[in-house]
Amino acid sequence: MRTLSYIIGCLLVLSACRKQDDYKKFIKNGEILYTGKADSLEVHTGRNRVELSWLLIADPKVSRSKIYWNNRRDSATIDIKRSAGVDTIRFVITNLEERAYSFEVYNFDKDGNISVRTEANGFVYGPLYEDALLNRAFGNVEMKDGRAVIPWVNIDTTGGIIAMQLQYSTSDQVLHDTIIHAEAEVQVTKLDNYLSGSNFRYRTLYKPDPKSIDTFYTPFVIAGVKEDLTAKYIVNPGAPFLRDPANMPSGRFGQLQGWQYNSEAGRNGTYDEINGPGMLTLWIWDNGTITNGKIYQTFTLQPGDYRFEADISNIDNTLENTYLVVAAGNQLPDVEQMNTALGSAKLSNNNHKYASAGFSLTAATTVTVGFTGTLKSPAEQTLRVNKVLLIKDK
Question: Which of 217, 223, 226, 257 has its CA 20 to 30 Å from the CA of residue 41?
Answer without folding.
Answer: 217
